[in-house]
Design brief:
The complex is a heterodimer of chains A (about 220) and B (about 425). Chain A has about 220 residues and is α/β, with parallel strands linked by helices. In chain A, about 30% of the residues lie in helices and about 30% in strands. Chain B is about 50% helix and about 15% strand. The longest helix of chain B has about 45 residues, at about 280-320. Classes of the chains: A alpha/beta (about 220), B alpha+beta (about 425).
Chain lengths: ~220, ~425
């Protein structure tokens, strides 16, 4: 589902170049929860954004659901991302002016045929039900706890029924108990057939992962 | 991206920062209000001038040349032959001869049946011109006679529409007399006259007879200072009073299209005649001054709109930078760079639209206030319009359209910046 071949990435800082990814190969199959762990600044997030098509400037090959990101135009990349990839971020990144339900339904704004308003809302409620927040649909993010916000973010990632879920430090802002619940949710989603890739520097995510990979010096190790 | 989704997102963004939205809206509103106000003022005063000088765009008033070289070099006498040649000119639709009455006519009593005050010993000279019925036919009531009644008969007369306004605006108030009703109600009114009587004794004819004028209608084709009689009546009176034939006083030549007027005027001059610029030239000069003033004031308004565009640009730059992470999230959930650009432009368009609609309303209210103020400050004058502003549908549209255009112009660079943001870097 996710296939990375010889992926490399350099950041230029003034005159010098820093290689953060150096020929990374990775496959994440449907039903698999892969945890990529490593220290801060090791390039985990970069790897995630390349896998999800948010970063188009890299060496090597990256594809999702059988489609290579390279060679696609910017708009095609956005449409493929919207249809196949769901993102979850450390700081939730919910829009504060929207209710939980509206945040979940946000991806519908960028679809060519999202369906009627009622259909969109029904799908949003269904996504909230999957994360156990059906009763918080009309709450604003400021009225939700950290764990609830992250679950709303997961529901938003699930709205488009993606085949791939990419999470960037999803438990970084959560307490141990809430973080464990979120990790358990990822495990359930993987068992439901999604290809889930979580990048984190926390070892506790490893317990729920089917595979744990370490990113060091731009390379992945089992 | 669908329009409804675009408007929804733009609306939410604006509501998230109402203070910024308000400042930008006010900036757009001020520019739009100024532009709408000045354009409406220019159009309104232009309309007032056109009412004061209702010259027809297709009319060329031909008069004998002041310096005539005689008929050998083209002929300066306006006779039937000349009228025929004028009718034959390219682009001419019709030509109507006019003949000034050289027999003095004086009114020294009030029109019958109106009961209006007439100052004692007041005698009014009635400058008259003979015209063919066709010239004023469109302004006459259906079937109304406009032909020579013969000796002793009531002579039909057509007056300038503006004469009634002059009377109601100046004469009636100064005499303490009541105002006259609208033109059609006065048709059939009879005025006693003395034919041959002049206010200047030496011009009074040896033979003075009582007569009467009967009002046949009002027309913009009759000069303000003249009464139009049937041309046959003028010819008969000239014959009765032994006035020699000196040709027509002028010929009203109507072009098929206004664009034909310059070439017709040139041809007329080549024939040895002159073109009476008269009221039209005055109207054109005043119109030019108004157009120039309107353009200058509109330029000021455009500068205000440019400042509004700068204000929108500045605030959108700030907001795009502040919302970099939010925009990156939108990209992550499926928005393309183009969607993000369109969103920022939509925000600006909404601001411009609100500001423009508000500006048009503010301009209308300011115009009403200005009219009320002018009505109190200006003395009662004829032709004083009820309003100095003309708010046609396109003037109303002008506010929102230019305001949106200004806001969009200001948003182009910030929208481009938003589209160029690297989502991966913004999220990191």
């Amino acid at each position: 589902m996710i296939a990375l071949r010889g992926v490399s990435k350099e950041f230029r800082d003034g005159g010098s170049a820093q290689r953060v990814l150096d020929g990374v190969d990775l496959d994440v199959a449907p039903g698999e929860l892969v945890a990529v762990v490593g220290p801060s600044g090791s390039g985990k997030s970069t790897l995630l954004y390349i896998a999800g098509g948010l970063d188009a400037a890299f060496g090597g090959e990256a594809s999702v659901a059988g489609r290579a990101w390279k060679g696609l135009g910017e708009t095609e990349r956005a449409r493929l991302r919207g249809a196949t990839v769901g993102f979850v971020f450390q700081s939730f990144n919910l829009l504060p002016t929207m209710s939980a339900l509206d945040n979940v339904c946000l991806p519908a704004h960028f679809r060519d045929a999202p369906g009627s308003r009622a259909e969109v809302a029904a799908r949003g409620r269904s996504a909230l039900e999957r994360v156990g927040l059906a009763d918080k649909a009309h709450k604003s993010p400021s009225q939700l706890s950290g764990g609830e916000r992250q679950r709303v973010a997961i529901a938003r990632a699930l709205f488009a029924e993606p085949r791939v879920l990419l999470a960037d430090e999803p438990t970084g802002n959560l307490d141990e108990h809430t973080g464990a619940a979120v990790i358990a949710t990822f495990g359930e989603l993987a068992r439901a057939g999604l290809a889930v890739m979580v990048v984190t520097h926390e070892q506790r995510v490893s317990s729920a992962a089917s595979r744990v990979l370490h990113l060091e010096h731009g390379r992945l190790f089992a | 991206m669908r329009i409804a989704a675009l408007v929804d997102l733009a609306n939410r963004t604006l509501r998230a920062d109402p203070r910024r939205a308000l400042v930008d809206t006010v900036a757009c509103c001020a520019g739009a209000a100024a532009l709408v106000f000045f354009v409406a003022l220019g159009l309104g005063t232009g309309d007032a001038v056109r009412r004061l000088f209702p010259g027809e765009a297709r009319l060329v008033e031909v008069i004998p040349s002041g310096v005539s070289l005689g008929p050998v070099l083209g002929g300066a006498r306006l006779d039937d032959v000349a009228v025929g040649r004028l009718r034959a000119l390219r682009g001419v639709a019709a030509a109507y001869p006019k003949l000034n009455l050289r027999v003095p006519v004086t009114a020294s009593r009030a029109p019958e049946g109106l009961g209006i005050y007439w100052p004692p010993n007041l005698a009014l000279q009635v400058p008259s011109v003979g015209v063919p019925r066709e010239l004023v036919a469109d302004d006459l009531p259906k079937g109304a006679p406009f032909a020579d009644p013969g000796p002793g008969g009531a002579i039909p007369v057509v007056l300038a529409k503006r004469l009634l306004e002059v009377y109601n605006g100046t004469i009636a108030p100064s005499w303490g007399s009541r105002r006259l009703p609208p033109g059609p109600a006065l048709v059939g009114l009879q005025v006693p006259i003395q034919i041959g009587q002049s206010m200047l004794m030496y011009r009074t004819e040896k033979r003075v007879v009582e007569g009467r004028l009967v009002l046949a209608g009002f027309s913009d084709r009759v000069p303000l200072y003249q009464a139009a009689l049937p041309i046959e009546t003028v010819r008969r009176l000239h014959q009765e009073y032994g006035k020699t034939d000196e040709g027509y006083s002028s010929v009203a030549v109507f072009a098929r299209e206004p664009d034909d007027v310059p070439s017709i005027a040139a041809a007329v001059r080549r024939m040895g005649f002159a073109v009476d610029q008269g009221e039209r030239a005055v109207a054109e000069r005043i119109g030019s001054v108004i157009a120039l003033a309107t353009a200058a004031l509109s330029l000021l308004a455009v500068l205000m709109l440019a400042l509004a565009a700068l204000a929108v640009a500045q605030s959108l730059f700030a907001t795009v930078r502040a919302r970099a992470k939010e925009l990156a999230v939108l990209r992550a959930v499926g928005a393309s760079a183009s969607d993000v650009r369109t969103m920022v432009l939509a925000e600006a368009a909404l601001l411009g639209l609100f500001g423009g609609v508000l500006g048009a309303v503010v301009a209308r209210l300011a115009a009403l206030a200005a009219d009320a103020l002018l009505a109190r400050m200006l003395p009662e004058l004829p032709f004083l319009p009820e309003t100095f502003f003309a708010f046609s549908w396109w003037v109303w549209m002008l506010g929102p359209l230019v305001s949106m255009a200004a806001a969009l112009a200001g948003a182009v660079a910030p929208a481009s910046l938003a589209a160029r943001l690297d989502p991966a870097r913004a999220l990191a």
